[in-house]
Amino acid sequence: MKIRRFNEGSADGYRLPCRTRPRAFMQFHIDRSDGGWNQLTPRQIETAYASFDTDYYLSSNCDLELRSQSAFEHYLARGWRQGRNPNGFFRTLDYLIAHPHLISSGQHPFLHHLFGESLAEVVDRALAPTQHDAAQHEATGDLQLPVLTQPHHRAEAELTPHVGAIKPLSEEEALRGLSQEEIARLQAEFDSGFYLAQYPDVRILETDPFMHYMTLGWLERRNPSSDFSTKFYLDLYTDIAASGMNPFVHWALHGKQELRAAISFRQKMAKRHYSPKVSAIVPNYNHGRFLAQRLDSILSQTYPNIEITVLDDCSSDNSREVIDGYVERYPGRIRTMYNETNSGGVFNQWRKGVSGVDGELVWICESDDFCEPDFVEKLVPNFADDSVQMAFGRILETDIDGAANLWLDTYREHAEAGIWGAHLVRPAADWFAHGFGVSNLIANVGGCLFRRSPIPLHVWQEAATYRVVGDWYLYLQIAGGGQIAWEPEAISYFRRHGSNTSSSSFNGTRFYSELERVMIEMRKTWDIPHSTVIKFYNNILEQYRYFSVEEVHGSLDLHCNLNKMLAVTRQRRHILLAMLGFVPGGGENFPIQLANSLIEAGWIVSMLIFVSDEMNEHMRASLNPAVSVYDAAWVTEYNCERFIRETGVSLIHSHTVGAEMHFYHMWNLDPQIPYLVTLHGSYEASDIPPEMMVRITESVDHFVYTADKNLLPLEGQGIAADRFTKMANAMPIDPLPFPQTRQEMGISEDAIVFTLVARGIKRKGWRAAIEAFCKLRKRNPGRPMHLCLVGEGDEPTAHRMVHGNDPDISFLGYQARIHGLYRLSDVAIVPTRFAGESYPLCIIQALQVGTPVVATDVGEISNMIENEAGVRGGLIVKAVRDTDRFIDAFAEGMQSILDDRMRHDLAQNAQELGHKYDMAPLVGIYGDLYSRTIVQSDPASIAVAA
Q1: How many folded domains does the chain comprise?
Q2: Contact present, 305 and 412 (Cβ < 8 Å)
Q3: Domain match, 342 and 473 both
Q4: If DSSP codes are grouped into helix, strand and coil, which group holds residue 769?
Q5: Residue 769 near residue 785, CB atoms below 8 Å
Q6: How distant is the alpha carbon of residue 540 from its chain centre?
Q7: How far apart are alpha carbons 126 and 137 in whole angstroms?
Q8: Which residues form the Glycosyltransferase 2-like domain (predicted)?
Q9: pTM of the model
């Protein structure tokens, strides 16, 4: 065991290193059929373990889900059969091919490599431990060997678990009921190269990998590709397991369309290439003595993508000399932010630092502390999960000279026992209901990273009113409706010395009154049980008496009153918005903008998405990072009921029928959870089974609709009129210009620019827009005009092949700055005949910037373009079914708007109409609706926005 010397002058001289690992190789419980493992001596076991590279094994095999086994155990029992390698130098498959006799003899290739042919003798006889082995085990206590009762001979087919016990299917049985087209789809999803690489026995047998999987492999829980886990799918979806169906067949032909997860969320995250910029912020005031160690500990981090900003708050010591020295020695690595006058508080510095950096993650590094070189590297991977808002590691307290002690380990254990030995990710609401509600588990801000998001000014101002526990209050706000991760291997050090605020606060009363305030804030935010509040109070009482404060300042209840804290009830509400995913569409753009506005209004908001494999990065970036994003695949694994409970969700607001299908069919959600649906057209565009529609309409509390036609699928369901609210959509106005000018796009200033913004699917008007434009151009040969097409998908891809070289037509793909594009356009065109069209956001955006519209009469478009007073901001074209007639009619509409006077008048009207689509009033309406729905669901509840 390695020992690290921390402080030679300390009482015991040495301390255990922070990352000491026990000699776990002495406690293995390996499968009995391990090709000689059971006959190794303790010394050979140590040799085998020492030759195994755990870090290499885990990083090279991200698909593994190790629970009861270590990586070493897994390799010995199964990994070698799957062709996995124990280190960077030994290749299992190559060794088996070079030594084919090992396959039939059942010998373990890695053990054979280490110990040679001497293992062959023990494999050929019964492997019951000898009396000598048993006596040695009893004497040493080092080895726990499983007892074998049968000889251990294996054939080639026994290179994977279950083989020999499972009868393979015939090819006819495996393919029964499948059409040639379906078989072709399965083969397209199957990865032969992956299968052969993962399972060397199949490669050696020279059998067809696809048919091996279909007839036997899935029964043995092998995987057909890196994107599908057979065992995971069967374990997660018990309906498929109970049916006896090949899970891969179900997923490829049905499960993908049902948005079922194919691999675990952990595997999904491991596949994500995630290396965000981390902004390290060092707020300093008179810590010149400690600055070098602090900066060195940041500069030596093994995680490469870190920017460093050092702030100084008018220090009177040599701090700036130290900082300037580091800036000179590390040019380009460190930037400074020096105050001309003292800011008056640490939170003013934190705020200045956070607002002045652009990293995805923030690391506030107190200038008198330090950390291990791999601290950031250990924490960053947690944020690949978009629901994680904070991650913290094992903070150790040190004395002024940096000698560590284990007191904070005891402190954490006392707050919540038994959870600190392993990595843990939990919803913030659950953390605060338990350990985080008892003690500030992040005793020093340098021991955590958090996702950078706009922190409201009032939050910073409130934090600044605390002298000691403002960081605890701030963690409560930053975590929001997301998750907090704990990583025990991420080590940082919290230096205690006389100038620490927390070190000198225990004797006065302000510290205890601040603790009362922070508990009241926690109780207003989350449902914190009485038992947690009582434990919190008893801890404070013990400290109050320890420092003899009672003798001077009277009873603790004068400053921190238990009954007052217990009387507080939750006031803030957590709204879960559910949408399809970050894919272009009104039913996705609107909830993103709504989420952003709700956050600004003070609600706790998180997002649930059902499609994460496809993601438009511009749309993803438009969501406020304070909105935590949960993946439906993770919810399935975590259990929906547990997810709703532990995240403290107050109400679910769905924007896609796929959410109802998951909540009420796959997840069997308790119908008592307040549930609101905004109908964007997905009901009209979906074939919902009658029994499912009954379940939905019985369970959903309230429906918001934007177009009367949204209600057609709900007719005859017996829904009371007071469960419906008609409400317009809205959008915040983007003030930024389009990234290109007309000149840069090759468009003349005198050209009439028509712009289509739509999803790239059929019936959204791509063909109609292009053909109508071409007719218009032919009719007006002397009139310069241009067509801009915005969107991604099959339709623009197909039309680009034909019209991509037309100088008057620009295929712009996805664009984020739609308001800006409409500002440089003359006319917005919306030739949609899509069945689910209701209240197009693109029309709202055009009207908001005064761009007139030519559109069809689908959904509520007519009412959007002309109000009750007759103010008209565009022209309406009837959406007839005959495509040729429709294109001619749409071209006529475009022809009419070429008239300069008409276009000018319509533009003025459009801007007037656009004023009704301000987001702020709509957020207020939704907020009132949320509150009413929550109270109606639970009359004892009082729902208010924060």
Answers
A1: 5
A2: no
A3: yes
A4: helix
A5: no
A6: 36
A7: 19
A8: 279-408
A9: 0.79
